[in-house]
Write a structure and sequence with these properties.
There is one protein chain. The protein is mainly alpha-helical. The protein contains 18 helices and no strands. The protein has helices spanning 2-14, 22-38, 41-59, 64-80, 83-98, 105-121, 125-143, 148-163, 167-185, 190-205, 209-227, 232-247, 251-268, 274-289, 293-311, 316-331, 335-353, 358-369.
């Protein structure tokens, strides 16, 4: 909050200058970074778009200063869930740095890492792993495992492996880097906390639910102290904690945690933000397990519709929600619709992401639970 207040004061003093004034541009960059850190992403995006138009006019689209701001705008778009736009901005700024690869090797490596993270968000898991492995191996060779940049790349690789269902290998990479991350970056560093959160999810996929819960609680405690309750990362971790509790059969306790996460995300991110919709999906599945079928169906149908409109019908998160909705309908005895939705989700997940993908396997487990045979369309 103090940083954001100072950044706003600086911007207010300098924004009246000519658009091409160096100090005005610098103040805008400082404010954009502060807005990002505070989670005020829509405001950050608007400011950066305006700044980018000015810098493109002054320096040209291929100047390094323009490229840096374009990359920064890509980061903001990713956090807003505008993944296609993020890929567009990353690809555009990457071309500038690739014109002088020896000079801008670190910037190119950072772009590959950012692209890999966004590829994962849109289900391009294989491409993500290739980029992340390339970046991790190169940084480990050049700078060693204790370098901050290497550790961040290792966390990205582990996450890419996890999203493909390579959970044991992902856990090995997490184990290799997290202790060093904590020592080098400190326990409160955002990258360490992100890696801890992803490790908790990896434990879940390995069915180590108690370990997942313990890791999530540890991470949540730090996030609440450092970032506050209404930070998006805090609320996401709280939602994951609710899921881990739910998977251990403590459905009533999980409901309380999930409702808190959903409420916080509605206030901090808005009800159309992907993170809110992901948490709402988990709450819907929990309500179905509790036998609150009408409430579960209403929430999951609304969430699925919004995700389909925002991210598309074949996005991993949309398909995960469709699978959860299908399972909820089957729990309520609506067998035909539930079975069709679940089958459709599983077939698409298998085709798009592979049979080892964790969401594909979750849908297959639901099909097995209800004794539904998978019927694939003929080629």
């Amino acid at each position: 909050p103090a940083q954001l207040g100072l950044a706003r004061a600086l911007w207010d003093r300098l924004k009246g200058r000519e658009e091409d004034d160096e100090y005005r541009l610098w103040a805008g960059a400082v404010l954009g970074a502060a807005l990002d850190r505070k989670g005020l992403l829509a405001e950050a995006e608007s400011l950066k778009q305006a700044q980018l138009a000015v810098m493109t006019r002054i320096y040209g689209p291929d100047h390094v200063k323009t490229a840096c701001l374009t990359e920064s705008l890509g980061v903001t778009c990713h956090r807003l869930g505008h993944f296609d736009r993020a890929i567009e901005f990353y690809s555009k700024s990457l071309k500038t740095f690739q014109a002088e690869p020896e000079r801008w090797a670190q910037e190119i490596s950072r772009h590959h890492s950012n692209l890999a993270i966004t590829y994962s968000a849109v289900g391009r898991f294989g491409e993500s792993e290739i980029l992340q492995r390339e970046v991790f191996d190169a940084r480990k060779t050049e700078w060693g495992i204790g370098d901050t940049r290497t550790l961040n790349a290792g966390s990205g690789l582990a996450t890419a492996l996890m999203l493909q269902g390579k959970n044991a290998e992902a856990t090995e990479v997490f184990d290799e880097i997290i202790g060093t991350m904590k020592r080098v970056l400190g326990p409160d560093h955002p990258n360490h906390l992100e890696a801890m959160g992803n490790l908790a999810v990896c434990y879940m996929y390995l069915e180590r639910y108690a370990d997942a819960e313990a890791t999530a609680r540890e991470t949540l405690s730090v996030l609440r102290r450092v970032c506050g309750d209404f930070d998006v990362d805090t609320s996401r971790t709280l939602g994951n904690l609710g899921l881990f509790i739910d998977l251990q059969g403590r459905h009533e306790e999980a409901e309380d945690v999930l409702r808190e996460a959903v409420s916080q995300l509605a206030e901090s991110a808005g009800v159309d933000h992907p993170e809110y919709l992901f948490a709402a999906t988990t709450l819907g599945g929990n309500l179905a397990e509790l036998g609150r079928h009408e409430e579960a169906q209403a929430l999951l149908r609304e969430t699925h519709t919004k995700l389909a409109e925002t991210l598309g019908l074949e996005h991993p998160r949309t398909l995960r929600t469709q699978s959860t909705l299908g399972g909820a309908l089957l729990c309520a005895g609506i067998e035909r619709e539930g079975g069709e939705l679940l089958q459709q989700a599983h077939v698409l997940q298998s085709r798009l992401f592979g049979d080892l993908n964790n969401d594909t396997r979750t849908s297959k487990a639901r099909l097995d639970r209800w004794g539904i045979l998978v019927s694939r369309p003929s080629s």
